[in-house]
TrEMBL record:
UniProt entry keywords in alphabetical sequence: ATP-binding, DNA replication, DNA-binding, Helicase, Hydrolase, Isomerase, Metal-binding, Nucleotide-binding, Primosome, Zinc
Cofactor note: Binds 2 zinc ions per subunit.
The species this protein was found in: Pseudolysobacter antarcticus
Quaternary structure, from the entry: Component of the replication restart primosome.
Cofactor: Zn(2+)
Its EC number(s): 5.6.2.4
Name of the protein: Replication restart protein PriA
């Protein structure tokens, strides 16, 4: 009887595919978890061997042999494979595609594995002989100077010279330096000693440590600046002392060089980063080093949750409420939720840290599934900032800022301190209109106003990326009275520079941080003991620790108070608390100014008078009444097409199939998406809602098969999102 290989192939089909073993391969070498190169249609794909079977449903004359076995050892261990199979089932995404997503890009191809060791840079002979040219402070020269002392690994360079990557590229082109691989060496490294833990921190560490060796979920609910990171560091040290690995996830924007540096300074071993700013090769090496158990501490963003952890000791999800943990396209997993699945199968503790835990997590605390460990006070001498509301009604505003607030910023600067002005809108102004005829610059592909970006003199659509020049005259009436309405970060920047010409004003948003390393360079423009002003979007909400920052002004929360999204209130609360949390983190006390036209809004009042936990309790109650998560469970079928008719037909069919299936399942829709048109495509959706997760999980696979078979499905683009975070 033939041996049949059951292979997960990265294609958008849910089933596994059967192949014969590659010729000349010993049966003993065929181990589940190894990659195989297989023919697929007219192409070749790298799949993962999952099972070795005795027979196949495919007639034997149609079975093709796999072309090559790519690994001598399974690349995916049993735990990771098993967890990923769970994810494929739970998120209703084809297993082959899930596995492909979990592997770093370097391993998705049929290439030999890179050599073990760490990537490093060294001088070439030419480089060693070269004499410095250009400015002595130029990064290229600094990099040459560092390498003159010997080869340096990438993490060492991260520490020594932010922005070294661009310099390295130019030096490589000139043949002055080369990339080399150093065999992992025990780096003599004396970690810095941290502050002694306070009582609550120590208690958290003790409780989590006492649970080691089994699955135990914890919520570290620590107010901003309470020293959560110190708790993580202490727990990681304990894992290291037991010879175990620790995986720490941080939000996308949270993985700044600052946090990496802090971990590297404090831990006695190498800290491996995994994020999108690294080259494919670096990510592959780190992944493999983790798979061999050599990489002990891995600090990464969302997809780092797929790191193999054969010696797992601890998983930490920092800022667990952050929306960037949810993948918004393709395989729509939630890294926090998947972390719990992995922690369970690895038998380790998982720590969800946040000052503003998500309502899902708080609901799990309520039911006793997760244990909550609070850090109620700020660490060291710091105190929580004092909140103030500025009632904007009837006030005269200067580009959106009240006189009272401008005075407070002036006082702050006068004391030699720093202020942060938060506005969640990039660009100069969100609307450009003609005062003569009322024409508004609009994106025709999205039916939304275009944002004026005055620095580049462009009109941009923040939904589809469309970009065009700013007209000199109104295209409708040829009038020249084009005016802006509202303000974005650029406009605020202009105004603050005008008001405070002698103070460093730094804008932080997607425009100013486009290049790698730019975030850190921008922060470097603020001298710690000098006055300064930061302006920015939600990028500023996370993880930054500026000791001289004492005033935070939040100048646009009103959008969050009246949104139709059921999560808007929760998000508003999290954002306000996190942004406010940047103030007064050291010795100097901080103040938070909140400008609003709705000072009596109940959500805002609860937040300010009674804090985030009370706000969360209030919203949880509302959601219970409305039947929304976390009390119920959702799946969202999204579809888009170039015209409305096929969209309607597809979603009508989908709705009919869903509404007769199970009385415990509610189908809401079809309805237009909150953004009914985007990038020239019509968009609509169907929301499925059930009290029990299992109702959805039982229903979805069969329904998806029916959908795939519909002729209507071929005429639209569609996707399913289990536990959607955004309903857009
Ligand atoms: N036990 C302690 N004694 C003195 N200082 C401490 C202690 N723990 C932490 N700190 C200091 O307090 C500051 C805030 O700590 P940390 O960044 O760990 O807080 P956090 O809770 O992670 O903050 P956030 O969530 O707001 O970013 C840091 O400067 C840290 O060095
Ligand atoms: Zn658009």
């Amino acid at each position: 009887m033939p041996t049949v290989l059951r292979v997960a192939v990265p294609v958008p089909l849910p089933q596994l595919f059967d192949y014969l073993p590659p010729v000349d391969v010993d049966a003993a070498a065929l181990i589940p978890g190894c990659r195989v190169l297989v023919p697929f249609g007219r192409t070749r794909r790298v799949g993962v061997l999952l099972e070795i079977a005795r027979e196949s449903n495919v007639p034997s004359h149609r079975l093709k042999p796999a072309l090559m076995l790519l690994d001598a050892q399974p690349l995916l261990d049993a735990e990771l494979l098993c967890s990923l199979m769970w994810a494929a089932r739970y998120y209703q995404y084809p297993l082959g595609a899930v596995l492909e997503c979990a592997l770093p890009i370097g391993l998705r191809q049929a290439k030999p594995l890179p050599a073990a060791g760490e990537r490093a840079l060294a001088l070439t002979e030419t480089g060693a002989a070269a004499s410095p040219a250009g400015k002595p402070t130029a990064r290229t020269n600094l990099l040459l100077q560092i390498l003159a002392q010997g080869p340096r690994t990438y993490p060492e360079l991260d520490n020594a010279l932010p922005g070294w990557r661009a310099a390295a590229t130019s030096l490589r082109k000139r043949d002055l330096i080369v990339g080399i691989t150093l065999t992992t060496r025990a780096r003599p490294h004396m970690p810095m000693i941290g502050p002694p833990l306070n009582v609550e921190q120590q208690h958290a560490v003790d409780e989590i440590d006492a649970a080691h060796g089994r699955f135990a979920p914890f919520v570290l609910e620590g107010v901003t600046g309470s020293g959560k990171t110190e708790v993580y560091l202490a727990l990681i040290e304990q894992a290291l002392a037991r010879g175990q690995q620790a995986l720490i996830l941080v939000p996308e924007i949270g993985l700044t060089p600052q946090i990496l540096r802090r971990f590297r300074e404090r831990l006695p071993c190498a800290v491996h980063a995994l994020h999108s700013g690294l080259s494919d090769g670096e990510r592959t090496r780190t992944w493999l080093a983790a798979a061999r158990g050599e990489a002990q501490v891995i600090l990464g963003t969302r997809s780092a949750i797929f790191t193999p952890l054969p010696r797992a000791g601890l998983i930490v999800i920092d800022e667990e409420h952050d929306a960037s943990y949810k993948q918004q396209e393709g395989f729509r997993y939630h890294a926090r939720d998947f972390a719990l699945v992995r922690a369970r199968s690895l038998n380790v503790s998982v720590v969800l840290g946040s000052a503003t835990p998500s309502l899902e997590t708080l609901a799990n605390v309520e039911t006793g599934r997760y244990r909550c460990l609070p850090l109620r006070e700020r660490a060291g001498a710091a105190r929580m900032p004092i909140p103030r509301i500025v009632d904007l009604r009837g006030q005269r505003l200067q580009h959106g800022l009240s006189t009272e607030l401008i005075r407070a910023i002036r006082d702050c600067i006068g004391r030699g301190e720093q202020a942060l002005v938060f506005k969640n809108r990039r660009g100069y102004a969100p609307v450009l209109l003609c005062h003569g005829c009322g024409w508004t610059a609009t994106c025709t592909r999205c039916n939304k106003p275009l944002t004026l970006h005055r620095r580049e003199n462009r009109l941009r659509c923040h939904h589809c990326g469309a970009d065009r020049p700013v007209p000199i005259a109104c295209p409708e009436c040829q009038g020249t009275q084009l005016q802006t309405q509202g303000q974005g970060t650029e406009k605020l920047e202009d105004m603050l520079i005008e008001l405070f010409p002698h103070v460093a004003v730094v804008r932080i948003d997607r425009e100013t941080t486009r290049r790698k390393d730019s975030l850190e360079q921008l922060f470097a423009q603020l001298t710690p003991d000098q006055p300064g002003i930061l302006i920015g979007t939600q990028m500023l909400a996370k993880g930054h620790d500026l000791p001289n920052l004492t005033l935070v002004a939040i100048v646009g929360v009103d959008e969050g108070l009246f949104s139709h999204d059921f999560r808007a209130g929760e998000r508003m609360g999290q954002l306000v608390v996190q942004v406010a949390g940047r103030a007064g983190r050291a010795r100097k006390p901080g103040t938070v100014w909140l400008q609003t036209h709705h000072p009596e809004h109940p959500l805002l009042l609860t937040l300010l008078r009674r804090g985030y936990r009370e706000l969360a309790a209030q919203i949880l109650d509302e959601r219970r009444g409305a039947g929304f998560p976390p009390h119920t469970h959702l799946a969202l079928l999204r579809a888009d097409a170039s015209s409305l008719a096929p969209l309607q037909e597809f979603l009508d069919r989908a709705t009919t199939l869903a509404s007769t299936a199970d009385k415990n399942l509610q189908a809401l829709g079809p309805m237009p998406a909150p953004m009914p048109r985007r990038a020239g495509r019509e968009r609509a959706q169907l929301l499925l809602l059930a009290d029990q997760r299992s109702t959805l999980q039982t229903f979805l696979p069969a329904w998806l098969n029916q959908l795939r078979a519909l002729p209507e499905a071929k005429r639209v683009r569609w996707s399913l999102d289990v536990d959607p975070v955004d309903l857009y």
